[in-house]
């Protein structure tokens, strides 16, 4: 496992994370911010090398995304069981930027947490969830 940076709010410094427990604490901070603001947030988890996985917080459902540190394709978003686009899943990236995902990208939060833990452990695209290339 390695250091991870968790960006929760655009106007706040990212939190340093060195253990799974600290990762879960950082996610809990995101959930608290979601509750305070009354809308879902999309927080960024970044590992050394620049790979970023994002997770929607504040709901029993979530969406994950993944971008390699080089910033070039392929880009990924989680793939849930639904086949539809609607109803869209709305959140705010770093609690500032309106973001929408298709319903087919929504997965249960426990699956999202498992993938976040895996991302922390391997610093790469988690294999514990299905992905769709975008």
Topology as a string of helices (H) and strands (E) = EEHEEEEEEEEHE
Distance between the termini: 28 Å
Q: What's the alpha carbon Rg, rounded to whole Å?
A: 14 Å
Number of domains: 1
Query: Regions with pLDDT < 50 over 5+ consecutive residues?
Result: none
Q: Structural class, please?
A: alpha+beta
Main beta-sheet strand count, sense and barrel state: 9 strands, mixed
* Strand fraction: 25-35%
**What is the helix tally?**
2
- Residues in helices, as a percent range: 10-25%
Average per-residue pLDDT, rounded, comes to: 97
* Shape summary: globular
Strand segment count:
11
Explain this structure.
A hairpin with a 7-residue loop joins strand 1 (4-7) and strand 2 (15-17). The strands form two sheets. Strands 1, 2, 3, 4, 6, 7, 8, 9 and 11 form a nine-stranded mixed β-sheet that branches. This protein has two helices and eleven strands. With 134 residues, it is of the alpha+beta class.
């Amino acid at each position: 496992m390695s250091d991870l940076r968790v960006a929760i709010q655009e106007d706040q410094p990212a939190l340093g994370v060195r253990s799974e427990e600290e990762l879960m604490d950082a996610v809990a901070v995101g959930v608290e911010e979601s509750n305070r603001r009354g809308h879902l947030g999309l927080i960024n988890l970044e590992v050394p090398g620049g790979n970023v996985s994002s997770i929607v917080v504040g709901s029993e459902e979530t969406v994950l995304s993944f971008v390699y540190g080089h910033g070039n394709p392929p880009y990924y978003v989680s793939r849930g069981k639904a086949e539809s686009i609607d109803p869209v899943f709305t959140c705010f990236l770093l609690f500032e930027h309106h973001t929408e995902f298709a319903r087919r990208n929504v997965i249960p939060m426990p699956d999202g947490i498992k993938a976040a833990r895996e991302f922390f452990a391997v610093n790469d695209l988690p294999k514990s969830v299905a992905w769709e290339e975008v």
